[in-house]
């Protein structure tokens, strides 16, 4: 059996037989062994050993080729992991790290520095543009006034922002030594673009399109104390003066 298998492999056009070729030869010999009643059990075992040896040699040869070409990947040989480690989902968390800022000691008689609370919620299944209108609505309000405005809004994002504000209010009392829960105002409130997911939208006649599942982030900054008075709207004369001042402050390069 071993000799006949070697002869059959050498008769092929390719000196290095592939897996399908070895399988076809193995099936042919198995069929011949079934029809031939004089085939012994030892011959079948030897044939199986030769086939496994040839398959192992082919696997090692294929692995060497991948290593030589730099095509070796852990996904092709090693079992795949269920942990997502791509760079697209790595978030810097810069907004939350602002809570760990340590300021220098204050001088005697200096007014007490108000507490600042940074909080956010990421990957919200909502549009960043729709969230921006709600974020701008409560900007500059006290915490109680903002919660009242969001309570009577029928928008989906309003309830999400309300939950984030309540979480930030609890953080202020628990972690930032704020004495009164209502003595807070919203200094910053904005939204950002999250990680979008691309999916296939199937059309008729075998065509397709790419759709995006949108996500957004919401960021809020609470400051201890009463809210500042609203700024007076600028007039046309004020805008013109600022524009002229910006033109005068320009730096003209490549000139005398």
Automatic annotation (TrEMBL):
Do you know which Pfam families this protein is assigned to? Ribosomal_L22
Its annotated compartments are: Mitochondrion
Give the highest taxon in the source lineage.
Eukaryota
Cite a single GO MF annotation: structural constituent of ribosome
Q: Which CDD domains did the record assign?
A: Ribosomal_L22
- InterPro entries (UniProt xref): Ribosomal_uL22 (IPR001063), Ribosomal_uL22_bac/org-type (IPR047867), Ribosomal_uL22_sf (IPR036394)
Taken from the UniProt entry, a GO cellular component term is: mitochondrial large ribosomal subunit
| BP GO terms, sorted | translation
Q: Which UniProt keywords apply?
A: Mitochondrion, Ribonucleoprotein, Ribosomal protein, Transit peptide
Similarity annotation: Belongs to the universal ribosomal protein uL22 family.
Q: List the protein's name.
A: Large ribosomal subunit protein uL22m
Top-level taxonomy: Eukaryota, Metazoa, Chordata, Craniata, Vertebrata
Q: Which gene encodes it?
A: MRPL22
């Amino acid at each position: 059996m071993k000799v006949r298998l070697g002869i059959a492999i050498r008769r092929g056009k390719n000196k290095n037989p592939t897996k399908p070729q070895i399988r076809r030869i193995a099936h042919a010999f198995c069929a011949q062994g079934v029809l031939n009643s004089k085939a012994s059990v030892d011959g079948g075992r030897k044939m199986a050993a030769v086939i496994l040896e040839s398959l192992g040699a082919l696997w090692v040869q294929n692995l060497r080729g991948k290593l030589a070409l730099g095509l070796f990947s852990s996904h092709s040989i090693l079992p795949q992991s269920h942990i997502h480690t791509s760079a697209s989902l790595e978030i810097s968390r810069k907004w939350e790290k602002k809570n760990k800022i340590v300021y220098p000691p204050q001088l005697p008689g200096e007014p007490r520095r108000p507490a600042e609370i940074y909080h956010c919620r990421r990957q919200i299944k909502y549009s960043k543009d729709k969230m921006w209108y709600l974020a701008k609505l409560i900007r500059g309000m006290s915490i109680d006034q903002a919660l009242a405005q969001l309570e009577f809004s029928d928008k989906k994002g309003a309830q999400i922002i309300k939950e984030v504000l309540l979480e930030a209010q609890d953080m202020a009392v628990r972690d930032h030594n704020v004495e009164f829960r209502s003595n807070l105002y919203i200094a910053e409130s904005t939204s950002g673009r999250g990680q979008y997911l691309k999916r296939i939208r199937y059309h008729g006649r075998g065509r397709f399109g790419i759709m995006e599942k949108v996500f957004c982030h919401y960021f809020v900054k609470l400051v201890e104390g009463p809210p500042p008075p609203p700024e007076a709207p600028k007039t046309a004369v004020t805008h013109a003066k600022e524009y002229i001042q910006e033109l005068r402050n320009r730096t003209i390069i490549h000139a005398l």
